[in-house]
């Protein structure tokens, strides 16, 4: 696969990324039991979930902006219909086309989140289901300069209710092992943030923060692995749990129906 990994596009090959990779993988395992018919993934990234969803559906389509990665995924999954392009809108797809839409860790990167949800609604067949995840803002450890915004459970629920007839909000949380890693991560990030005495992470434009964010985030993950190698290595996708307590979850898990 292409080497476009950043701390935002988490690698399944870097040992220090394992807890985050497993966290991002978990929703695919959950929805593999739910998706049917014709499926569209909006923002498939490096294809983390394709192998889990493809056998479950009649057809799998996906769109992502990283063209070289899409070209490699086409070779790996020739039976899938893969496109590169910016979103929204979803111009390549007609109204009422898909039974299911999946979009994990994408909406926080979208400037026009209203159009994003309207487009998902448009391409869904009547009664179709969509599944979205995004970070839960109260649980974020610092400002992420790659994100346009982050949401609380209430904010995302209210937004989705504007465009879908049925909206259910859940969350992805972790067991004791996961939360121990999360708290170690929080402590480490807080130590790093002590040097930001002017609160620049919230005062500077996002583009100025991306390079230092990448450097510090990678440094932090490597330190956590060195300090707690067994914990970092042992976390698996099943250590992340679907919960009704979305307000305190690590990620929001939104389920909607057209």
Mean pLDDT: 92
Largest sheet entry: 8 strands, mixed
Radius of gyration: 18 Å
**In the residues, how many domains can be counted?**
1
Indicate the CATH class. Answer: Alpha Beta
Residues in helix, %? 25-40%
Question: In CATH terms, what is the architecture?
Answer: 3-Layer(aba) Sandwich
Strand order of the largest sheet: 3-2-1-4-5-8-6-7
Structural class: alpha/beta
- The CATH topology, please? Rossmann fold
Q: Determine the number of helices (DSSP H or I, runs of at least 4 residues).
A: 9
Strand portion, in percent?
Answer: 15-25%
Q: Would you identify the regions where 5 or more consecutive residues have pLDDT less than 50?
A: none
Task: Give a verbal description of the structure.
With 258 residues, the chain is α/β, with parallel strands linked by helices. It has one domain (15-257): Vaccinia Virus protein VP39 (Rossmann fold, 3-Layer(aba) Sandwich), CATH 3.40.50.150. The chain has helices at residues 18-31, 50-53, 67-76, 113-123, 153-161, 176-193, 200-203, 206-227, 229-234, and strands spanning 38-42, 59-64, 81-84, 98-104, 124-135, 166-174, 240-243, 251-257. It has an eight-stranded mixed sheet. α4 links the parallel β4 (98-104) and β5. α6 (176-193) packs across α8. The chain is globular. The relative contact order is 0.17. The model has no long low-confidence stretch (mean pLDDT 92).
